[in-house]
TrEMBL record:
Assigned protein family: Belongs to the transaldolase family. Type 3B subfamily.
Metabolic or biological pathway, per its Swiss-Prot or TrEMBL entry: Carbohydrate degradation; pentose phosphate pathway; D-glyceraldehyde 3-phosphate and beta-D-fructose 6-phosphate from D-ribose 5-phosphate and D-xylulose 5-phosphate (non-oxidative stage): step 2/3
A single GO cellular-component term on record: cytoplasm
Domain of life of the native organism: Bacteria
Pfam families per record: TAL_FSA
Function of the molecule: Transaldolase is important for the balance of metabolites in the pentose-phosphate pathway.
Name the record gives this protein: Probable transaldolase
Species of the source: Candidatus Obscuribacter phosphatis
Classification of source organism: Bacteria, Bacillati, Candidatus Melainabacteria, Candidatus Obscuribacterales, Candidatus Obscuribacteraceae
Gene (name only): fsa
A single GO BP: pentose-phosphate shunt
Length: 223
């Protein structure tokens, strides 16, 4: 399963990209608005930092507006993915854009039927929202598994992108449920690598080394 960062903050992106494990970026209008930068320039800079897919969402709510914006966004960088909501207008725009060779991430998916419609419209990604389903006492990981199974049964090429990740457990559940990708906020990405026993182990190894470094160094020098 690939790991995406859900942010538009350049500092966060640079930090996680330096780890060598970042596969792509997802953004949305809320995340972009926080950065108070020109949308196009911000997306282009992100695309230079991360060579993988970078999702940039349309703002229009009508099909023609989405298609027009999608065509423009697709020109910004080779790795841009146009993002559109899972609405009738979004499906219509996805169908048109995908036929033109433009990759579309269909977002705000909350059911298997919605995912099927997105796939049939030609979506490159479909983004089921795990956390928001959990918020209303529905099993988001079960939805991921149902969509992944359905796509496998019918040989649909659309990739399942688990979104609205609220904690590291959601990442594990998405991977086990068959998601192709999980996208998560910076805070959650940082939590994936954190474990108290790892920190304790590093501290212990360094303490032992510092106690013995003079004698160990002498042996190394003698060789």
């Amino acid at each position: 399963m690939q790991l995406f960062l859900d942010t538009a903050n350049l500092d966060e992106i640079r930090e996680i990209a330096a780890w060598g494990v970042l596969d792509g970026i997802t953004t949305n209008p809320s995340l972009v608005s926080k950065e108070k930068q020109d949308f196009k320039k911000l997306v282009q800079e992100i695309c230079q930092i991360v060579p993988g897919p970078v999702s940039a969402e349309v703002i229009a709510t009508d099909p023609q507006g989405m298609i027009k914006e999608g065509r423009e966004i697709a020109k910004w960088a080779p790795n841009v993915i146009v993002k559109a909501p899972l609405t009738p207008a979004g499906l219509q725009a996805t169908s048109v854009l995908s036929k033109e060779g433009i990759k579309v991430n269909v977002t705000l998916c909350f059911s298997t039927n919605q995912a099927l419609l997105a796939a049939r419209a030609g979506a490159y990604f479909v983004s089921p929202f795990v956390g928001r389903l959990d918020d209303i006492n529905q099993d988001g990981s079960q939805l991921i598994q149902e969509i992944a199974d359905m796509f496998a049964i019918h040989d649909l090429e659309t990739k399942v992108l688990a979104a609205s990740i609220r904690n590291p457990v959601h990442v594990t559940q998405a991977a086990l449920a068959g998601a192709d990708i999980a996208t998560m906020p910076y805070k959650i990405f940082k939590q994936l690598v954190s474990h108290p026993l790892t920190d304790k182990g590093v501290e212990s190894f360094l303490a032992d080394w510092n106690k013995a470094k003079d004698s160990v160094g002498a042996v190394v020098a003698a060789k």
